[in-house]
Amino acid sequence: MKKILLGLVMALGLSGAALAAGAGFPLDKAPQRTNDMAALQNGAKLFVNYCLNCHSASFMRYNRLRDIGLNDKQIAENLTFTTDRIGDTMKSNMDPVMAKKWFGVNPPDLTLVARSRSSKNGPGADYIYTLLRTYYRDDTKPTGWNNLVFPNIGMPNPLWELQGERKPTFDKVTSHGAEIEVHKGWEPVKAGTMSASAYDQNVGDLVAYLQWMAEPEQNSRVRIGVWVMLFLSVFTVIAWRLNAAFWKDIK
Fold first, then answer.
1. Hey, which end of the chain has fewer CB within 10 Å, N or C?
2. Alpha-carbon span 180 to 196, nearest angstrom
3. Domain 2-162+194-216: which CATH class?
């Protein structure tokens, strides 16, 4: 029974924006790097190495990574597993039957997570960026991990080796006559392979890749939109002057 409950919570770990928002933890602003090819390439590498083990991106093909500046050889050698082909979709190697047996349900697909997690508290990118930076060790939980954005999250910290281990510190304040705890900062417990600033940089790259993957044509659409608006602006001026010229002799 405990495994089933753990699996359900894990499956909803990234799909529970409403629950996460209910915790009231403020979201940090994710850096905007969807036009940064180096950041997107690093984010793709992090996604394949740390997310694709459990989660799929079944609406994204490996060869679409050409759009972020990678060629087929780079994709095949660095971002695919031995059984994958360049035209395959990005599916997890986890056996769906075993995943359901272990967790009660398969981990959710992440292709559109950066869009689907948007809420009144902020865009999905901010949610994911804050979520991946607010994990902490909690021995009372089955996975040994907890999260400030999503309390009692069932998904363990996928980047713990990079970030290390830490615990949150709180201040007690009085609000509306009741004493509550407010997050103050972090106390390091065990160092990771990256410094805090380097970890934040890499999480920003991963989030940028998730943003791009959720809508690969977004940047092209924005660029075309800018040119369309410029054209309409110029055409409006021309039409206005033509109209004045045609009607100038009519009283």
1. C
2. 28
3. mainly alpha
